[in-house]
Amino acid sequence: MTEISKIPATSIKSDERMKKVSVLTSLMRRPELGAVAGLLMVVTFFFFTADTSMFSLSGLMTILAPASQLGILAIAASMLMIGGEFDLSIGSMVAFAGLTFGGLLVNFGQPLWIAILFTLLFAAMLGAVNGQIVIRTRLPSFIVTLAFLFILRGLTLVGLKWATGGSTQLRGISEAVGDTSIASLFSGLAFQGFFAWLAENDLIEKFDNGIPKVAGVPVSVVWFVGLAGVATWVLLRTRVGNWIFAVGGDANAARNSGVPVDRVKTGLFALTACAAALVAIITVVDAGSTDARRGFQKEFEAIIAAVIGGSLLTGGYGSAIGAFFGAIIFGLVSIGLTYTKFDSDWFQVFLGSMLLLAVLFNNFIRRKVTGER
Amino acid sequence: MADMKSHSAAAIIEAKDIVKHYGSVIALSGISMKVLQGEVLCLLGDNGAGKSTLIKTLSGVVKPSGGELLVDGKPVTFSSPRDALDAGIATVYQDLAMIPLMSVTRNFFMGREPRKGIPPFRYIDFKHCDAVTREEMHKIGIDVRDPNQAVGTLSGGERQCVAIARAVYFGAKVLILDEPTSALGVAQTSMVLKYINHVQQNGLGVIFITHNVRHAFAVGNRFTILNRGKTLGTYAKSEISIDELQNMMAGGKELQALSNELGGTI
Lengths: 373, 266
What we know:
The complex is a heterodimer.
Chain A: H1 2-6, H2 23-28, H3 33-49, H4 57-82, H5 90-106, H6 112-137, H7 141-164, E1 169-170, H8 173-177, H9 183-186, E2 189-190, H10 192-200, E3 217-218, H11 219-237, H12 239-249, H13 251-256, H14 261-287, E4 290-291, H15 298-308, H16 320-336, H17 347-370
Antiparallel strand pairs in A: 1-4, 2-3
Chain B: H1 2-7, E1 11-22, E2 25-36, E3 40-44, H2 51-58, E4 66-71, E5 74-75, H3 81-86, E6 89-92, H4 104-108, E7 115-116, E8 123-124, H5 126-139, H6 156-169, E9 174-178, H7 186-201, E10 205-210, H8 213-219, E11 222-227, E12 230-236, H9 242-250, H10 253-261
Parallel strand pairs in B: 3-10, 3-11, 6-9, 9-10
Antiparallel strand pairs in B: 1-2, 1-4, 4-5, 7-8, 11-12
Helix pairs in contact in B: 6-7
């Protein structure tokens, strides 16, 4: 916006039919506007209905922990959606990556860093396979990844039974992980020193013995915030970001302009699978075990969060920061209802309504942005 | 002008006996054509004449099954649109030129984003991009007040002009324009034709594909007529009239009869 003022007024012929770009219009161009509005709505709702403890520091952490795990998936899913594709297999990928990770640690006795590296690489490879099938067959990614939703879930069950000798839960991961510094990157709390310092100075609540009531930020939240920042930067400021918008907006036009469409799409599928693997690693290390239901229905939740965040189902438009807020809305509502007098089973009703509202709003915004009449 | 003519005796791009088969379908059966510097070559032909296939061949989207492609007199083979772009051949497609949801700037630099910074932290210099976009648009008389506005908000003619300006800015030597005026109204058509004229005067070669003889005659120097995958001939503007062109393009008398019946309005 500051650019306009630098150009001398005389160099621009004004067209009397053009209206000035209002602040509102330029705000509307931000895809995450809907998510921010939704977040404000939800916070206001809980402000008046929920117990005040929801808005305490510990209440916040209780909300952010599940929101962050979903958010990591949602950010990747939104990038893939902007790139014009879906991945319905990410929930199953969480389970499958959890099995891969757990199996490497427990059954093959590999050190933690090898297990992490291999799990991420293996997931990226599977994601790339998904992408290549979509590109080569030109089938909708919806169908291809729906197939993988079942294939990976099934493989997880079979693999778990094989790894455990008949059970669907693989235990003993905490023992295999041990207490290494790498583990602290994926589990537990971050900034504990800072929180202890805050408690010492009476800036946050503490127990009588001086230990802060909230000892730190869950590591997954740090990943979540970090990824949202990186993804936003990539989308808005880099060449790859421009390519992602381009392939989702119109793959043919992008290809004709020299954008490597297939590479971008394959990369996005690999990234999405990696995000699923990261969530698997974080949750498995935290829980100390993995089971067949890990990541169940997370693909839908991630896509819903991305849509609430302003990503269009048709691709080419959306934002990572929107998915970030979408995931927080998700966390707020799912956890927040327990702080109110409402039956927490209202959650799904609320969720469906949010989704419908978001899609209607996004379509309206898209018409505004492109000037469709 | 005379100096330029002698200089441009060599073709910027030349196709020799280009053949393209799609399975058992013969789309092109031996097309030859060339474009000189600073001239507009019009490719005329009815639907199914092979115009699109020829463009796709020249722009690296498909590989020809036979024949030779010369750029500046040297034989080349393109394996992707990128190769053709790098050789200075830019194609502006009818409706696939721009992405409506993306901003004018993002469209302008799509596929050729200038970057700053140290890898892996390189980023697009949007300040510079916005300034360039606004300036280039201003040159062609389109006032983009906000280069961050979506391309979808521009009119069809403006979009074509943005696409052409983009190709010119990135150093195209030959512009292939695929029916740039077919979906436009009168005012917008004249805006695009004017711009084609402007580009030609700057010494670029232009291949203008159309099935509107009037549009072709307005800006063309030479006319190549395609029919059923073959060239029916190439004529300089002085050698042919607008009516003869129309007849050749339609491939004969049937249309002539129909045209007479309708009072010569086609």
